[in-house]
Structure formats: C-alpha cells, structure tokens
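call fold(seq) -> tokens
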Amino acid sequence: MISWVWQYMIQDNDYDICKVLVINMQNKESCCGQQFLHDGSTGNIANHLRRKHSIYEGINKQPDKSIQLTVSQVMEKVKNRLLKLLKAIEWLDATLPLSDNYNDCADGRRLKKWLLLPHEWNLLKQIVDLLEPFEDATTYFSGTSYATLSIIYPLIQVFKFKYAENDEVNNDDLELEQDAPNFQHEESDEESDLSDSDEEDNPELDTPEQSTTHHH
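ret:
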C-alpha cells in the first residue's frame, strides 16, 4: 500500500522534497521545500506534514488541538516560552500597578486578570518534569535513521528510574498522611496511661463518690 505522504512530495536524486504550497515573506505562494533523505521511511515526512501544514491522513483539516498536541509542542510552549518568561511576568505584575502612568496601571490590571495562579504555575512545572525524558528521547531518535534494541532498552530503564523516584516520594507523602491518625491515637494512649499512672500514685485522691461519703 502506497503511503498518503507521497502525494505531497517530489523526489530529487537522494531526497524527497515537500511540495506543499506556503506563503513566503514576500506574501507569495511557494513550495515548502523541506528535504528528507529518500530511504523509504515515511515517519518524519508524516510528522512534518502534520506539524507544519496541519495535514492529517491526507485530509487538510485542523484537528482537535487537545488530542493532537505532541510532547515537543507542549515543551516548546510551556518550558521554552511560559516558564522562561515567568520572572519577567512576575516583575511586570509587581511594578506596573506602582507606576504613575495611567496606561501602565491599566496594563497591570489587565495582566492581573490573565495571570496564572501559583498552583497553575506549579502544575506547568510538574508537566515539564513529567515530559522532559520523552522530549530527550524524541530529540535523540530524531537524529537516527532507525532505532535499535540496544538504544531502546537502556532508555526504558531510564524512564523506570525517573518515574520510580516520583512514585517513592508520593508514596512517602501518602504514608505520612496515613500515619498521622495513628500517631495521634498513640499519643492519646500514652496520655491515658499517664493519667492512670497518676491515679495509682495518688490513691488518696477523692473520687466524686468518695467526696460525697466524707461529707456524710
């Protein structure tokens, strides 16, 4: 079966060249021109058509972004843009409202409405930590013509080690939370033992019934 990607390519000697029309800097249509080594594989070409030209399975349509986002796209938008600008955004948020300029104050109010909350920034950082090993693997494999088991097996071990660390931390936190009621229960038992010990050490202490008897 002939792959759907070839209808968008032109073969030139040892290369396949993307012929999808794009608008260039002079506002004119021209071929994309992206070159791929002609080795019979279609994975890189298909990824190029999807990411660069939004062409999916030969149908030129815009997909559901929530489904089609790739690891590299998330990392580009979150790690290389938002998180890199976090310090600058925080600085603007702190200084714009203090400005004597009316427009600066207005910009500060607008920024405040759109600014992410602290827990949302923390969530983005956690997403980056989660996806970073996959980004590294994708970057590495993009430089190879094919993947071998000698590369894949060590990579799987890296993933296991990376995420096992996170599981251990989460499990430790969970155990601490679960042990908290037991710890409180042990404390109450100790307090009860202490109170019993006090009563034994002080047998002359009157109980309410004894006090009533003495009054008679």
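Helices lie at 43-53, 65-68, 71-82, 86-95, 102-114, 118-141, 149-201, 208-215.
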